[in-house]
Specification:
Elements: E1 3-7, E2 19-26, H1 37-53, E3 57-64, H2 83-100, E4 106-111, H3 113-123, E5 130-136, E6 141-142, H4 144-151, E7 159-160, H5 163-173, H6 182-190, E8 193-195, E9 209-211, H7 219-225, E10 232-233, H8 235-239, E11 245-250, H9 258-264, E12 275-280, H10 292-296
Parallel strand pairs: 2-3, 2-4, 4-5, 5-11, 11-12
Antiparallel strand pairs: 1-3, 6-10, 7-9, 8-9
Length: 297
């Protein structure tokens, strides 16, 4: 599993009691770990200021590429692109980072699919590695209407002859991310495509760029398209969580309706006062966590 890592650095020389704090970020369905660059840099910078006043603290942020995305490997058996695989992989990763940093638990941030994986970790008994859980615009029930919109682009395999054409594509399909700067849209585009030489399939085309994921990750959506879409029920997974949750809700989200948020407040962790909701008005699915006002919130 490929990942990026940020850290505030080392404690004062001679210290043998440095406290480690670890954050693990997991992206959405078709995305990759570079979505968290802005957030990770802010966490490290802010915690670095804390570390200068308390030099016994080292902060580390990891963002991972779930298999089939970014720089992680593509699976030979495409049927393995499933939450059971993702959950197993993340459990192994959390075990590795907690051991390597000598910490009991991490703070987990998951956007969309990443949040579902987070809930699945608790349901699978791997929640022992998680201290706090941030769910970015994902909840205990995913409505069919949102899935239908995502099915329009998930697993598609377009080619782009120019970078600007690719950027226009992402600006269109990810418009619900909310207002982003030109720099942030270029960042999303830069890390969402890879150069490709012409293949037999595209030998008559001037191919320049393709998407940075295995198109087979969309197989579950294609399978769903063959029959009427239904809501995805994740209440058992949500109710298995037993740590504090920050639920980030895009006010215009079609993946996390407001009525689901309200019900989450009364069930499982919500009924135990473990759920805090952060509303982001005017944004759909999902807040990109790149804009400074979103990070500051």
């Amino acid at each position: 599993m490929a990942y990026c890592q940020w850290t505030t650095g080392s404690p004062l020389l001679g210290s043998h009691t440095a406290q480690q704090r670890v954050v693990v970020c997991v992206h959405g369905l078709t995305r990759n770990n570079r979505d968290f660059d802005f957030l990770a840099q802010t966490i490290v910078k802010a915690s670095g200021n804390l570390s200068r006043s308390d030099p016994q603290v080292i902060w580390t942020v990891y963002s991972v590429d779930v298999v089939g995305r970014g720089k992680s490997d593509w699976l030979e058996d495409k049927t393995k692109y499933a939450y059971s695989t993702y959950t197993k992989d993340l459990a192994a990763f959390l075990e590795h980072v907690t051991t390597s940093h000598n910490v009991a638990k991490v703070d987990y941030i998951g956007t969309s699919m990443g949040g579902i994986i987070g809930m699945c970790l608790f349901f699978a008994g791997a929640g022992k590695y998680i201290n706090t859980l941030t769910l970015n615009d994902i909840g205990a029930l995913v409505p069919a209407v949102g899935l239908a919109r995502m099915a329009d682009y998930v697993g598609k395999d377009p080619r782009f002859q120019e970078f600007d054409i690719a950027e226009a594509y992402f600006r269109k399909i990810f418009q619900p991310f909310g207002p982003l700067t030109s720099e942030q849209w270029k960042h999303i585009t830069m890390y969402s495509i890879v150069p490709e030489m012409a293949t037999d399939k595209h030998k008559d085309e001037d191919v320049a760029w393709r998407l940075c994921y295995d198109p087979a990750i969309g197989a579950p959506f294609r399978n769903l398209a063959s029959k009427p879409l239904t809501d995805v029920d994740l209440w058992k997974q949500y109710e298995s969580v037993h740590v504090p949750i920050l639920l980030i809700h895009g006010g215009l989200s079609d993946i996390l309706p407001r009525e689901v948020v309200e019900e989450m407040k009364t069930r499982g962790p919500g009924s135990k006062n473990l759920l805090q909701v952060l509303e982001m008005e005017g944004i759909g699915h999902a807040p990109a966590l790149m804009a400074q006002d979103q990070i500051d919130a």
